[in-house]
Amino acid sequence: MLRGPEYALIQLYVTSELESDVVVKVGEVQFYLHKFPLLSKSDRLQKLVPKSNEDKVVEVCMDDFPGGANSFEVCAKFCYGMTVTLNAYNVVAARCGAEYLEMTEDVDRGNLIYKIEVFLNSSIFRSWKDTIIVLQTTKPLLSWSEDLKIVGRCIDSIASKTSVDPANISWSYTHNRKLAEPAKITEEGTNYRDKMENIPRDWWVEDICELDIDLYKRVMIAVKSKGRMDGAVIGEALKTYTLRWLPDSVDALISDDHALRNKSLIETIICLLPSDKGVGCSCSFLLKLLKVSTLVRADESLREVLLNMIGLKLHEARVSDLLIPARFPQITIYDVELVQSIVNRFVIHEKSNWDLDVVRKNEKGTDNLILGHGSLVGVGRLIDGYLAEIAHDPNLNLGSFIDLSQSLPEIARPIHDGLYKAIDIYLKEHPSLTKAERKRICGLMDVKKLTMEASMDAAQNERLPLRVVVQVLFFEQVRSSAASRSLNNHQSDGSQSTTNLDEECHNTAEENCKPLGKQLRQMKVSEELQKNGRLGKKNSRSGAQLLPSRSRRIFDKLWSVGKGGHVENKSSETSGSSQSPTSIVPGDSKSVSSRHRRHSIS
């Protein structure tokens, strides 16, 4: 067909010796054609174009023609017997146009509808990528495509191909997510690219990411309904689609232009999550969905679904995953209440799986505890790290910090180093805390569960209350004494097993706790003790020489209490740093000195 002069309308002519006797207007395009070839193929044109008045040019307006002028041109060429090229990009429009013109077998044998249906079934639906392209092109003609069942057939074809055994796949597909450098060599000595020739189970997820969210949802429902796809693969497909379409920046996520689209997308993804309690999706991905759903204000019932799934696998999360921005009217930087809710769900789930006998046995030893409650210990470390992050927030109130810390059972924290770090940061960032508040937050920490490194840091920490520093120094002395006693027992009898250090510490602590309590009640820290920075003569054998003056004096005082000594008078409190602990018990100076040197080394 030839294009005529381009005035207001685009005019197309058929090269023929006969003048055109029918003009078909489709949108802004006019087609100058002939009645006979058109009427011989189209039942609709037979009804619109009268056969009489052959000398008069008939005009037909088809502004509602599906697919527009390009689609009508394909149909008109077929009527004239011209070669028509069909492909995945124009076949839907051509099929809808043929249906509009009623180009059926009743009008002429081997008509356009029949030809297109053969092409669809023999070529398009057998091709993986062509089927996806055809499904995409149905969007502007969705109503027509639904009536002609093109959408349904495309979806069924795609879902069926995803269920095929990967070993039997012969068609091309896109899979770039896990490819590495071509020269990378695996441990077995084979080339990495050769190893990737084994088709993965999630080979199909990237190609369908180009679909619009509504069509993607229907495809995923069809894939899941087949019942042959593992939940992990479904989860990987949803993650890939989410990363493909969700913007990275928060501003783009909540912008007016895309807010509704992003909300619809995130709600659809949540609805499509595998029904295996979140096993098929990583906790990091679920938390990303939760973060986005919070920002776009997704439906609360769907957020509840996410919270329950995350609560089942919180031990897999990272601290950065939990840093979810708070929503108005919250004044904190991060949504601490949301994390609190997740932790509560995790603890409820864990408690439902606990066996009381196993719990009692695990409480007797750290090794068994970690083996029996590895996920709980992992969450303990996670929450301590999260507390350390949110402790920097000046708007975080003390109650929220304490509530989140106490939401985990004691067995979740065999070591309190992480909790001590979080408490220290909170004290540093909130210097206006009262004495009672400082005592309250430090009460979360068990000094007996601090490592040597954390204990030494705590002993020199001016932000901690004096009583906590006293406890730290005392239990470090107990630990050193128990270690020394265990070493002596081992040296005296090589055939006997070494005394358990924790039991020694426990026994020694019980023996000395009463004198310590009495001593603490009698201690009065005067301004002279806090301001006097002058140290006595340094003792090279003293293990407390690395501590500040306040801690050294307390350490010397506790040493005498732990060994059964007595405080001579008040002056000893202010000048105790000059007294060597080895001189407290003259009859056992060698053993005490040995233990004290051991404390200094550690």
Q: Order of strands across the widest beta sheet?
A: 1-2-4-3-5
Helix content: 40-55%
Largest sheet descriptor: 5 strands, mixed
Alpha plus pi helix count? 30
| Rg measurement, Å | 40 Å
User: Span from first to last CA?
Assistant: 94 Å
Query: Spans of 5+ residues with little confidence (pLDDT < 50)?
Result: 2-9, 179-196, 366-371, 494-506, 508-547, 561-602
- What's the number of extended β-strand segments? 5
What number is the mean pLDDT?
A: 77
Judging from the principal axes of the Cα atoms, what is the shape?
Answer: elongated
Class by SSE composition: mainly alpha
> Percent of residues in beta strands?
under 5%
Quaternary status: single chain
Describe what this molecule looks like in 3D:
There is one protein chain. The chain has helices at residues 35-39, 43-48, 68-79, 91-100, 112-122, 128-137, 142-147, 150-162, 192-195, 213-225, 231-245, 250-254, 259-272, 283-295, 300-312, 319-322, 336-353, 356-362, 366-372, 374-390, 398-406, 417-429, 435-442, 452-459, 466-492, 501-522, 527-531, 549-562, 571-575, 589-601, and strands at residues 2-3, 10-13, 22-26, 29-33, 58-61. It has 602 residues and is mainly α. A 5-stranded mixed β-sheet has the order 1-2-4-3-5. Helix 6 (128-137) runs antiparallel to helix 8 (150-162) and helix 25 (466-492) packs antiparallel against helix 26. It is elongated.
